[in-house]
Amino acid sequence: MQLAGWGRFPVHDAHVTAPRSEAEIVSCIQQGQAIARGNGRAYGDSAISVTNTIHMRHFNRMLGFDDTTGTLIAEAGVLLADIISVFLGRGWFPAVTPGTKFVTLGGMIAADVHGKNHHRDGGLGNFVDWIDIMDGHGKPQRCSRQENPDLFAWTIGGMGLTGVILRAAIRLRRVETAWISQTVIPAPTLDAAMDAFETNSDATYSVAWIDCVNTGNKLGRSLVYLGEHATLADLGASQKARPYATPTRRRLTVASRVPHWFLNRLFMRRFNDFLYWQGSHSTMQKLVDWDSYFYPLDSIPGWNRIYGSKGFAQFQCVLPLAQSRTGLRALLDAISDSGMGSFLAVVKRLGDQPGRFSFPMSGYTLAIDFPLNARSLRLMETLDRITITHGGRFYLAKDSRMSSETLAESDERTQRFVAMREKAGMRQQFQSAQSQRLAL
Amino acid sequence: MNKQAILILGARSDIGMAVAHRFASQGYRLQLAARDAASLEADKSDIEVRHGASVTLHEFDALATQTHAAFVDGLEELPSIAVCAVGLLGDQAASERDVNSAIKVMRSNYEGPASILAELANRFAERGSGTLVGISSVAGLRGRATNYVYGSAKAALTTFLSGLRNRLARHGVHVVTVLPGFVATRMTEHMDLPALLTAKPQEVAEAIHRATEKKHNIIYIRPVWRVVMFVIRLIPESIFKKMRL
User: Fold this and answer.
1) Do A312 and A372 contact (CB within 8 A), yes or no?
2) How many CB atoms are closer than 10 A to CB B118?
3) Is B189 on the interface with A (CB under 8 A)?
4) pLDDT band at A254 (very low <50, low <70, confident <90, very high)
5) Is residue A224 classed exposed, middle or buried when 0-12, 13-18 and 19+ CB atoms within 10 A define those classes?
6) Which of the ends of chain A has fewer CB neighbours closer than 10 A, N or C?
7) Contacts of A141 (CB under 8 A, 6+ apart)
């Protein structure tokens, strides 16, 4: 069947099986070049194997929950949205969440996803107690920090290339309410935005929307969103009565043919002007429900169609702290010079990252969407160069177009990852279209 | 919180499992019955974790009809609702070549379900309450060349349920006949089905839950199937026999 990631590029005609038992997974793995697929929210070809994609949708059961520690044991195909709907009402929330709740547990571990609290809490991997993984011989293995620690360390952020994640134990965090107390800090320049991140490093959550479309002194202005889990005391009387209730959100849908003025540069500039104006003139601090705060785009099912049938790519890099100011400025200038803007550009301060092959590092990450075409592909190659010059690296869960040379140059860990895969016999058994493109 | 028990026969099926989740979310206690029931442990945990429901597993073989009376007697509690989701689509071509293959389809879709429902019916009637839900099929409404073995067994089940309903109405027992059209399940995953006509197992479960609450007798899952089957049944046999459906 035709298979693509969330960015709808590249599209592969891939062979997909959806096993229902571990025995069926074993027979899939024995065919070689297998990759597990969750809910298909990686942007590119991370979860596609042309010959052997293993869809994990039937492994979506929750196996146990300890409500003293908040430890959940669940199969790899369980959706984050289901975890939230089951546990938020009982006072628990994911310790780390990416920007969509439509991801699976297995996918989150494979990408070692980070959230708006990465600067404080690190990535999801920090909250994984153990993983059961099916290796290349079809043998299920438990791995943790004590048991098979190497396999554990490589699997977190290993993009599914160390085996098929079957189930895992993760820790949730206690919350008193379903609300986030949000503070918006308008930052007229990129420097001001970065200062805001640094002075608010104790905030639980922080992220910034950044203007990448306008030029001159409007380029780089940002709205920095800080967030804290609201306590009962923060809520109004009516909210307090049902602290975990979530107001129903209006669901928007994307017209199947988006008018092309929508992606027009002038329109996007005005739109960004409006966003900044609105952000800097609304109340600085307010209560926001969890769904709107963490997953604003989830309320627009199929927003990935907005860029049309050719799809889009998301460029996401991280720059080391010392190089972040000059690096981000150089990236913004290149984007602005190219005349290719984007609605969705996000900057965030990341914290230290102990993961063997995980994306984050202490510094700043920039994520920005581009409709896919020859110009944007050229621009992204320029951005690749700037990132490498500044000592940065790339997020494989977003990547759909990078070259293997670029990856190797940006990340010295690549060689060790490949050597480990070679030695463990994982390279024959586990391959995605992405791992083949990147020579992993 | 509702504290009644529901028995689901053929619980491993996608529809059976969706029914289990739907009723568990309403506070029902679940009795899940299937062959190799121990292999439903993960599903049991899932239902317990998600819904905080209590779940028991019961070994049950629909084709071992001689065990059915003992099976019902062995339940710790006679449930207030029983849903039979047992069925076998089979392979029409194989059924044409091999009578044993055809008989297995007939037994799995009619004899087995009818036998266990009959046992439950007697006990429900004696108690004077309860709801029996039989999952039949629109395929039973008219025989077609491509699946008449399956269809004939479902037709028999539909008739059986109709008779049961007629018999038990005066005893306070309600009988629901479910006539799903296409449902996206393991049974149909190799087939290329029209999206508009194909329901998710959760829709079936939702409709069954509603039918038990509102005491509906015969339910289709997507309203469009009423129209489709109405038209199909109107076609004169002299024309129908020449059609390829």
Assistant:
1) yes
2) 15
3) yes
4) low
5) buried
6) N
7) A132, A133, A134, A135, A148, A151, A163
Q: Closest approach of chain A CAs to the CA of B106, in angstroms?
A: 26
Token pair recorded at residue A251: 């669901």
Which residue among B28, B110, B148, B150 is the active-site one? B150
Contact by Cβ (8 Å): B161, B190: no
CA A381 to each of CA A210, A309, A376, A411: distance values in angstroms, whole numbers, following the listed order:
21, 22, 9, 16
Which residue of B lies nearest to A71 if distances are taken between CA atoms? B49
Q: What is the reported pTM? A: 0.93
Q: A-B interface: how many C-beta pairs under 8 angstroms?
A: 22
CA distances from B195 to A41, A169, B100 (A): 23, 36, 33
Beta strands, E only, B68-148: 81-84, 130-135
Taking alpha carbons only, the member of B143, B119, B19, B13 closest to residue B69 is B119
pLDDT in tens, A95-150: 999 999 999 999 999 999 999 999 999 999 999 999 999 999 999 999 999 999 99
Confirm whether B150 is a catalytic residue. yes
Distance CA B33, CA B99 (A): 28
The residue written with tokens 């592969």 in the block is A12
User: Which DSSP state fits B217?
Assistant: S
Cβ(A409)–Cβ(A134) under 8 Å? no
CA separation for the pair B46, B40 (Å, rounded): 10
Residue A427 CA, chain-centre distance (Å), reads: 25
Question: Which residues of chain B lie closer than 8 angstroms to A75, CB-CB?
Answer: 42
With H, G, I as helix, E, B as strand and everything else as coil, classify residue A316: strand
Place of tokens 């479902």: B154
In tens, the pLDDT along A347-387 reads 999 999 888 999 999 999 999 999 999 999 999 999 999 99
Provide the 8-state DSSP code for B114: H
ipTM: 0.90
Q: Pick the residue from chain A with its C-alpha nearest to B185.
A: A58
